[in-house]
Design a protein that fits this description.
Layout lengths: L21 H16 L4 H8 L3 H13 L3 E3 L16 E3 L4 E8 L3 E7 L5 E8 L5 H17 L5 E9 L2 E3 L4 E5 L4 E4 L1 H9 L3 E5 H12 L7 E7 L3 E7 L2 E2 L30 H5 L1 H10 L8 H9 L3 H25 L3 E5 L1 H5 L1 H11 L1 H4 L2 E3 L6 H16 L6 H23 L1
Parallel strand pairs: 3-6, 6-10, 11-14, 14-15
Antiparallel strand pairs: 1-2, 3-4, 4-5, 7-8, 8-9, 11-12, 12-13
């Protein structure tokens, strides 16, 4: 983490520019500094990032032309002689991004602003799991959100999913629970929306969300453990998320979990995903008479109402998640661990159980997701927001806005046709 000059105590998690493509990297550093510290004086950005004042001024002007930053309404007085400093801040009034998360029972579609705030979201339950049907419905749902927000201009769409997701090709290579193989997500959603589409695994997407907007921003290394129907992990170090060859990094479904009892389709007992899956939680809850369906949130509701068996199931699951976190901590030794799991997110006793399992020395390093009420929407939206903050000059707001208008008009026309 770069330190500032002695004249200021401001610290920044934003890395200094150190990329062969200096202009692109410097623009990214400036935009992220504005996100982190704005409203902020250009001179302060220069001190924090190590860029020259002239370079910062040039990048701020270009980012303002693109509609990504603006001058703050209230100038700050300088301590010496001369004109007051006019700080710059993120312009979150012009553009939105679309987010799509593909889960096993439903898709989540959402609009987010440039600060990563979820403006609106909807869940679309799957009728069938045919990939083209699921993706078409999600794309149309996103178009409907844009049509209902006429002042919103979309820069692009991020799609996140569990399983093996190849970011570079925009493909879900394999999602065993949905039965998907080699699904060209970018192609299908892009054709349906007319917008730039970026695709990634949901655990990696949420590491990026934490890195940009979450409570572990500035950490040198972060592990994210996602425990839903799918169980995935992602690891980021020095501001880079590790993808590995063909984006296979983070596949932990068949890691052995100490104390596991569930038989896995691979022929072994106690594989991490089958042991921790929400499907397993719900099956156990049904067998115990806690719920009669397949919604894990109903187990939470029962626990909140005082059902001791529901509490026991959630706390025991949190302990098993703690064992998984402990295993990954031993292997990767990250500075911080972020866990997305319903019990850990919503119940203090579950978080306590997880931390006790990890052990006192490392317990404080483990935290729940920073986005408890919108984690799936954040997963989708952060895929495209990460692209924006990494390469703001490569993002064309004007072109994307035009495409967004076309997509919204198309969605409106489609809705009218269906209504008639």
């Amino acid at each position: 983490m770069p330190r500032t000059a002695a004249s200021t105590t401001l610290m920044s998690p934003v890395p200094r520019a150190a990329d062969p493509d200096r202009r692109r990297t410097s623009a990214s550093v400036v935009l992220r500094s504005v996100l982190e510290h704005g409203p902020v004086a250009r001179s302060t950005i220069a001190r924090v990032t190590g860029l020259s004042p002239a370079s910062v001024t040039d990048h701020c002007a270009r980012l303002a032309e693109l509609g990504l930053v603006r001058e703050s309404a209230a100038p700050r007085r300088s301590h010496g002689v001369g004109r007051p400093h006019v700080p710059v801040e993120l312009d979150d009034s012009r553009f939105v991004v679309g987010g799509v998360h593909i889960a096993v029972p439903y898709s989540t579609v959402a609009l987010l602003d440039l600060r990563g705030r979820v403006l609106v979201e909807r869940r679309l339950k799957h009728g069938r799991t045919d990939p083209r049907e699921v993706l078409a419905r999600a794309a149309d749902g996103l178009g409907a959100l844009l049509a209902e927000a006429p002042g919103s201009r979309a820069l692009g769409v991020g799609v996140a999913a569990g399983g093996w997701v190849a970011r570079d090709s925009g493909t879900v290579v394999e999602h065993p629970l949905l039965g998907w193989r080699d699904v060209a997500v970018r192609e299908v959603v892009g054709a349906r929306t007319g917008l730039p589409v970026h695709v990634d695994g949901h655990a990696r997407a949420l590491v990026n969300a934490e890195r940009l907007f979450g409570r572990v921003r500035g950490s040198r290394s972060v592990l994210h453990l996602f425990v839903g129907n799918m169980v995935d992990a992602a690891f980021a170090t020095h501001d880079e998320v590790h993808h590995g060859p063909r984006s296979q990094a983070g596949s932990i479904a068949h890691l052995p979990l100490a104390g596991g009892t569930e038989p896995c389709a691979c022929g072994r007992i106690g594989c991490l995903q089958v042991e921790l899956s929400e499907r397993t939680l719900c099956r156990r809850a049904r067998e115990a008479g806690v719920i009669d369906g397949e919604n894990p949130m109903h187990v939470l509701t029962a626990a909140a109402a005082g059902d001791p068996m529901a509490v026991r199931l959630l706390v025991e699951r949190a302990r098993m998640v703690g064992r998984a976190a402990e295993l990954l901590l031993d292997v990767l030794n990250p500075e911080r661990v972020v866990v997305t799991e319903i019990g850990v997110i919503h119940r203090e006793d579950c978080l306590t159980a997880l931390r006790e399992t990890v052990g006192d020395e490392r317990a404080a390093a483990v935290v729940p997701t920073s986005f408890p009420d919108s984690v799936l929407a954040m997963a989708g939206g952060s895929v495209v927001l990460d692209v924006l903050y990494r390469d703001p000059l490569g993002t064309s707001p004007a072109a994307s806005a035009s495409l967004s208008a076309s997509a919204s008009a198309s969605a409106s026309a489609s809705a009218s046709a269906k209504a008639s």
